[in-house]
Amino acid sequence: MREYLVTFHETVPDDTRHAHRVRQRQAVVTVRSVAAAASSAKAMRCEADGLIDWRLRADTRAVSELREQAA
Fold it and tell me: Which of 8, 10, 19, 41 is the most exposed place for a label (fewest CB within 10 A)?
């Protein structure tokens, strides 16, 4: 099993209309693959925020591996 950090960002403009990526939420998940990490974090985000789709509150989702754990 591997541990992944999944980060959700939203791009928002400031008052001068310059776009900035704002971190909305992060989740650490322990799963077998990058795809499983993205799927698991998506489900966690939707459940925690009462959403039907994570894209209602974020534009992007990034997955990075933290470390591999012994089975």
Answer: 19
